[in-house]
Amino acid sequence: MISLLQEAAHTAVETTEGAIVTDEAATHGADAATHGVDAAGHAAEAAGLPQLDIATFGNQIFWLVVTLVVLYLVLSRVALPRIASVLSDRQGAVTGDLMAAEEFKQKAREAEAAYDKALADARGEAQAIVAQNRAEIQAELDAAIAKADAEISARTAESEVRIREVRATADVDAREVALDVTAELVRNFGGNVDGAVIGTAVDDRMKGAVQ
Fold first, then answer.
1. Global confidence as pTM
2. Is the separation of the CB atoms in 39 and 17 below 8 Å?
3. What angle do CA 83, 84, 90 make, to 5 degrees?
4. Over the stretch 129-145, which tens digit does the pLDDT of each residue have?
5. How far apart are CA 203 and CA 209, in angstroms?
């Protein structure tokens, strides 16, 4: 683009110089012809690489400055605002993503803390329930054992009473049987049956057997 502008400027300069030379030729004659010859020589020399022609450096610098100013204006008014807008949007998106990530991280921490608290509360409640159930079971077991001990004691006492009653009844029956058998034996041997003597003998015998 700079080369095209430089060539256009060079063409304009040559045209201007040609007009000036023609005007001077019409006015001054020989001088104009001389300048025309010199201009033609310079044009021939610059026909290969006009940008290296020292005579056109001023114009080239001028158009270079103009081109740079135009480029600066285009960049500052169009390209740079768009780039800045894109960078700003990108920075905003990155900042938003970072903020969202930090928010999610904070929520994750809060959720983890809530989970740990709920787990600790559940463990505490479970331990309390276990302790309460254990105490209730122990109380029920103690009550059952006490009831069983009371029933066993009552039945033992009742059994002892019955045993004593049976033993007393058995002793009475055994004494009567012993009296009858002894009286019958004495009668068979031809002796005199004395109930008092036989009763005393039987009682003494039974006491000795019991001892």
1. 0.34
2. yes
3. 90
4. 999 999 999 999 999 99
5. 10
